[in-house]
Amino acid sequence: MQSIKSVAVGPLNARMTFHSDFCEKHTYTRGNKDVVKPVRMMILNGKVVCPRCELEADEKKLQRDLESQIEFSQRTKNFNTLEKRSMFRDRTVSRATFDNYDVSEPEETKNKNRMMDLIKHLQQGEVFNIFLQGLPGVGKSHLGYAALKALNVPPDPDNPKDMGKSCLFINMEEAASAIKDSFSNKESKYTEPYVTQLMGDADYLVIDDLGAETGSEHSDSRASDFIHRLIYKVTSARQDKATIYTTNLTSKKLYQMYDSKLVSRIMQKQQYIVFKETSDKREMELPF
Ligand SMILES: [Zn+2]
Question: 16 alpha carbon to ligand 1 midpoint, in Å?
Answer without folding.
Answer: 15
